[in-house]
Amino acid sequence: MTKQRILQVGSLSGSPSANQRLADGYDVFELWKHGDRKAALAEYGAGITAMVTSASMGADAALIAALPDLKAICSWGVGYETIDVQAARQRGVMVSNTPDVLTDCVADLAWGLMIAGARRMSLGDRYVRAGRWGQVHGSIPLGTRVSGKKLGIVGLGRIGQAIARRGDGFDMEVRYHNRRARTDVPYTYEASLVELARWADFLVVATVGGPETRHLVNREVLEALGPKGIIVNIARGPVIDEQALATALESGKLGCAALDVFEHEPNVPDALKTSDNTVLLPHIGSATYETRLAMEDLMLENLQSYFQTGKLVTPVD
């Protein structure tokens, strides 16, 4: 039986077996192996109706335009800000992502970052590794308690709600900021992000990425959070103004930043790397075997559904 031909933008090396499963099931045109992408697309692009990509690789308008027969873009991951959805819609191209399956692991990591920042776990780890345990008491700064504090969440979507629910177990009061108030949640809505930050002890960024939310968390928001406040970002790096963040930490106007994402990944400012008031992770929110396999399964399910029914299982709205 002849395999359906698809284009794969880049290697899905962060997934347990996605590359192999795609190769087993489809005739895969591996775009990342071609130095001259434009020439490769001009020669081989015709006839390809489905594309596989991810948030890190994306699909811009030029790539979409280079595939005249494209009908479906199946993305591995929940974020799609690097996919030109508008260009796809204008061409009648469907786009899918992999929502829900990574919600719990990303929410878990947000809480790990929150606790690590509050209890100075990264600093304590460095003390132990440097053989400074005997110097800890009286020299390492005291942390702050998490239980019973005020939790602000920026973006109360699937992941934001999962983070909020975990706050109940820590006896925290939860408020949130969204583009609009929700009527289906028990948490207090705060129309002003600055006021939410001023109220909160912890501010967790869980909103979508893209131009609309770039630098949503700016100097004013960070300074409103205050010298004892802790900001956590498991969303997208550009949501926070990274220069303003570094300045707020250096000046003592912000207490701590616990980050899994950065504005110019994989580059991280030295000011963040050298600070004792940061916890830094290499974008591993979904990096568990269970979640990455579930993302892989759902991406492949979308691809299979397109070829069998002409529809996607989890289309981007």
UniProtKB/TrEMBL annotation:
EC number(s) reported in the record: 1.1.1.95
Residue ranges of domain D-isomer specific 2-hydroxyacid dehydrogenase catalytic in the record: 16-316
Residue stretches in coiled coil: none
One Pfam family linked to the record: 2-Hacid_dh_C
Primary enzyme class: oxidoreductase
PROSITE patterns for the chain: D_2_HYDROXYACID_DH_1
Alphabetized UniProt keyword annotations: NAD, NADP, Oxidoreductase
This protein's record includes keyword Transferase: no
Family the UniProt entry places it in: Belongs to the D-isomer specific 2-hydroxyacid dehydrogenase family.
Any one GO molecular function term: NAD binding
SUPFAM superfamilies for the chain: Formate/glycerate dehydrogenase catalytic domain-like (SSF52283), NAD(P)-binding Rossmann-fold domains (SSF51735)
Organism of this sequence: Bordetella petrii (strain ATCC BAA-461 / DSM 12804 / CCUG 43448 / CIP 107267 / Se-1111R)
D-isomer specific 2-hydroxyacid dehydrogenase NAD-binding domain span: 112-285
One of the record's GO cellular component terms: cytosol
Identification of the protein by name: D-isomer specific 2-hydroxyacid dehydrogenase
